[in-house]
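[09:14] KT: can someone run the structure on this one? pasting the chain below
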Amino acid sequence: MRFSNMSNRKLWQKRPNDGQPKSSKSISFAEEETITGSSPSICENASESSFHEASEMSSTSRFAILTEEVKAEVDIIAPKLERETSNKLREAMPLGTLRFDRNKLYGRDEHTAKLRDALLRVKLNRQKRKTDVGATTEFVLIGGPSGCGKTALATSIEDDVERSATGIYLQGQFEQTAGEEPYKALAISFQDLCWRAEDILGPEGFRLFQAETTKNLDALELRFLHGIIPSMDHIAPLPESATNTDYEEFMKSKDQKNRLHYGFIKFIRVACAAFSPLVIFLDDLQWADVSSLDLLKVLISDQVGTNLMVIGCYRSDEINQSLSNMIRDLRRPNKAPSKSRLLSREGSKKKLLLASMASTGSKGGRSGILLPNDPSTSRLMLPSQAFGTSLVLTDLTLGNLSVDDVITIIMDLLALEDEHVAAPLAQILQRRTLGNPNYLKTLITVLYEDNLLSFNYGTMHWSWDLLEIEKSSFATDNVVDLTRRGIERNSSKDLRHLLLCVACLGSICEEKYIRLVWKKSNVGQTSERVLQQLLSQAVEQMFLERIGQSQYRYSHDAVKEAAISLIPRSEFDTLLQQVGGILFEELAEEELETMLFLVADLLHNSEWTDNKLSQLLLRAAQKAKGVSAFSSASFYALHGIKRLPNLGGDEDENVQLAVKLYSIAAEAERSLGNLPQAKLLCEAVIGHTHFPLFDKLKAHKILIELFVHEQDDFDLSLNYSLDLLDETIGCHFPRSKAGQALGALRAIKQMKLQQSIPSAYKIKDLSMMTDPTRLFGIELMQAATFSAFYCGKPILMLIVLNKRIQWSLKYGFHPSMAAAFATMAGVFMHVLGDWERGRRMATAAHQLVQKAKSCGVPSNAEEEILVRLHFLVDPWTNPARSLSNYFIDGYKICMNQGDVDSAFKIIISYVFNHLLSGKELNDLEGDVQCYQPQMAALKYDQWEYLLDLVGQASLNLMGKSEHTISFSGKIVDESSGVMTQYRHTHFAIRFLCAHFGEYKAGAQNAIKIGYDWEKKYPGVYFGYDAFHKAICLYGEARNIAQLQGNSCTASPSLSKPTSSLYKKHAEKYHAMIDSWVKHGAPNHVHHLSVLNAEKIALLSCSQFVEPKEVCQLYEKAIRDSVRGGFVNHAALAEERYSDYLFGIDNKAEGIYHLQNAIGRFSDWGATRRVEQLRVKLAELAGGVTFQD
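[09:31] RB: done, structure tokens below
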């Protein structure tokens, strides 16, 4: 227990350091500051000495020595500082005054020690980076009943933190009366950081902090942060590009929320590099909104920020379900679910369809839990640990004080030396208060004010009457009642009104807003002088405390609750609405936007008769949705609906207002998973007679999404879209197979007409589509296209795509036209075989995107066409080596536009292209390490899994895994067998089989899976897969043929399967690749050359073929591979060539080409394959060892 209100914060003020401002010295992010921050000379000498003596020691030993020395310094300095502070306070206190020592905690020694241990670990984290010892993120959870001293314990380390050269202690508080304002405490904390950063870091350090923030956060992430932290502009102003685009209109709610979280993560990482330590204290978590708890979980789960300590306090007897679930998850000592376990849960039609292209899960193979000996501290190794950082949970529970603790308090408070004198009074007080520290302090203060505890100047001792104290009626009071009595006794009517006004303005309020509300609401004195006197009285009597120069807050929650209880609840509710009305009417627009949530919370129950309140609540709902606070968005929107005036005709302003409120409420409820409520809201919009057809579109689209998410029924969503098109605007699509076949023929015929692909000039002259009916129809057709694809109805999808294109050409330009052309380009290339027309459509898609940009139309058209073209067109029309920068540019565009899913799809194409085109494997490993944490942080498990496949394949090839063609390494684990049901896993296995010479396994896998995959999914990977299948099939066919040819008594087991079976399947893939090359696919020219040589080499096993002819084909294959930059396939061709040469007893040439294969595999970075081929070469060369 500490007898005080929270120590005054020096917000936004310069803090002295040895008499000089900290800003007098610029501090680099990489600079190593003093660890304790209290005596620089001592710490510097100690650290220099220890590192000099341990220069030859291991990094872990140096770290251990440093830890012990720092602990020793803290043990020496901390008690000295505490004594000095206590003595100064005693000297300043006159006789007869209760000496509440605000710097001393009673009965909390064990808790304080654990809190300081956590702080010490954070302070040492920078040194851990240098010594390669795993760093940690600290989360201290402090629970207990109200008034037990949680806040006092949490703030007891504040001075220690801020004595460090670049240490910063941030504090925010959630409040019960905050309504639905999201991120309240976090916003206050980071607001503090933004204003104090320059003072702490100095001019140079602050400029570096600004530069790093701007460099690491893109425009969209900055926009999200600005929506929560108004003073973010002081660190990184919002780019103009972020203010001109309405991202929320087309961003998925998952993307929006995850990008917000990821933006905060990146900002915290930059802050952790600047401030050491960075401590964030969040008080009253039991009142935190759901969005804040979600963000908090993300921040403490990040595995990169290493100077971060988060302290969270909560009332254990008032905990809500969301916080309860969070605490339960943190305390649960179970491993994170493995990827295979997560995959096995996927049962829905939608997820299985998605899984056909990408599986889902998280890396359980790299997660686990370490529990130290101390049961109150748990180290949680969270999933997706790319850098080995872990979360250390320190779980503290505070109870009430014992009689012995109260005796110590009484002895210190009353300057008693004999505990037997203090014991009777302490026993009464402990019994009355149950040992609750805040209650105890309040009761002692009341006894003092009622003269039941007084100072006798004759004896110079304190005196009290135990019988009178026993007779007092305080036993029926609680701490709030006692505090209210104190306020009533010691304050005027004006002061009480002031306290009520402050209670309406949030946990921390600016003096200018107090002044505004005071003048407009008070019926008594309103002069500035009177207000300043009242504020001084409130601070002096410890009702309020001053923060910095212009802010105030309540000294304790109990004081605020007592102030509110001064008047009936109905009167306080009226005051809330009055204060809200004053702020709404008097604040400038910019200030109102900053305080929008507070004003909306104050007014949401008002009985205004016009639509001003609904407009205000709409603004709050839109702002909340814009920062992914969907619970708050729903709250504001639903209250806005309740306050709507009566609706008139279709053109009524209130109709548009109602549509927006209903739509936001439905979207928010859907994002929260409240699907029945979202459905009801949508049906209310659709069934409303005054709402125009186009205004009902969003409700229809949400319903269509609900059919997928709630019922996993793409057929239902498709039929709903088609029925709606037919019933509302008379746009009919065939449902029968025969009708769809005829419709597809007509669509193909239309698309083959010259005018169906607009020229650049025609695109430029296209006018915008403005007819609401046509806009309604084309939006529904987009939904139908998506559903038809996942229903497995490509013919119907083709018909709908064609209709979208024809409508755009006839009725005006629509941004989705670009994506339709991009998709149709893939259809013509891979379904109809018209590559030339497909290329022209791809060009038109790019031109249409530029058209949308020039018109200033906000859309995600560019991201959509980039994904389609990167997947369906570009790998077939552009050399693989030229695609890398193109892919990266596409990724950046999609991330900047908020389309995370499309961005990661492009990155998957990028890394697969990197792997398949023979670029260095070491660089590929770096790419995987770069993008994997992003996918993990943004929770895109399906793309993360594909990235892991590529990463594990590269590790197998580089010899960093003990396996070759199986995926049981440090990234991916296939031991459960669940992974084998996903096609990408088989693809990666066949890739490894081809390069490791495991032709039998690859051939059997190719036959098992079938050869129609290339037709269904003709993307960046699958053309290469056809080649790897053919190589395995031809390779195994030749192995069998050679074995049968060399064995005079071939057993039946050797003839089954026969060489002809593998040859038959190989020739199908061979013919497929031949057709691609004839269409001009540049990345398959060398594939065809290699397969031509393989086919003739296989033929030579059964009939005579001139060896020279085979050699020429292999040499051409090697030249074509090298010319295209495919070092991996050049190595493969060299190896296959050497096998052929050894088969015809041309040992010298065989050794030469096998050495070439080793050299090329070495250039690629495939160390494991190099080792295998060296062993093979030594055996074939008679035991001679060869080097590169």
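[09:33] KT: thanks! Confidence is low (pLDDT under 50) at residues 1-60, 88-93, 334-389, 1047-1056.
[09:34] RB: yep, looked fine to me
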